[in-house]
Amino acid sequence: MPAKSEIYLSRRERQIMDIVYARGKASVAEIHDAIPDRPSYSAVRALMRILEEKGHLRHKRVRNRYVYLPTRSRRDASRSAVRRLLETFFDGSTEQAVAALLEVSETPPSDKELDRLATLIEEARREGR
């Protein structure tokens, strides 16, 4: 299991990762320009270095600047985050997590969404998950 510092992301770190995932890659200047309630350029640079130390970003040199890329796909990162969420708040229970999502949702799921959920549940039953 990764160390806690590798798992936990601050609000600013999450904002940076969202921008990098949306763009595929980004320089410190591009992040600085895109981040809400913009901190200083040096603060963004420090946060990106921290994200690199935590293993979320890597960099490559392009001409005279560093370009940062995520170390894993957004899908892999989101799956890992959901697993941590399940363990942390729902004792690993998918049922409890889905019930909580349905309770807090602003709008009820559409028929299409309910059909998709039913299909996923049926597939899980067949696969013995």
Outline the structure in words:
- With 129 residues, the chain is mainly alpha-helical.
- It folds into 2 domains: 4-70, Winged helix-like DNA-binding domain superfamily/Winged helix DNA-binding domain (Arc Repressor Mutant, subunit A, Orthogonal Bundle), CATH 1.10.10; 97-129.
- Helix content is 64%, strand content 11%.
- The chain has a 3-stranded antiparallel sheet.
- A hairpin with a 2-residue loop joins β2 and β3 (65-70).
- α3 (28-34) crosses α4 (41-53).
- The radius of gyration is 18 Å and the shape is elongated.
- The two termini are 22 Å apart.
Could you name the CATH homologous superfamily of the largest domain? Winged helix-like DNA-binding domain superfamily/Winged helix DNA-binding domain
Poorly predicted parts: 1-6
Spatial strand arrangement across the major sheet? 1-3-2
Portion in helices: 55-70%
CATH architecture of the largest domain: Orthogonal Bundle
How many alpha or pi helices?
7
Using only C-alpha atoms, the radius of gyration works out to 18 Å
Strand content: 5-15%
Backbone shape: elongated
Whole-number mean pLDDT = 90
- How does the helix and strand content classify structurally? mainly alpha
CATH class group of the largest domain: Mainly Alpha
The tally of strands reads 3
Ends distance: 22 Å
Number of structural domains: 2
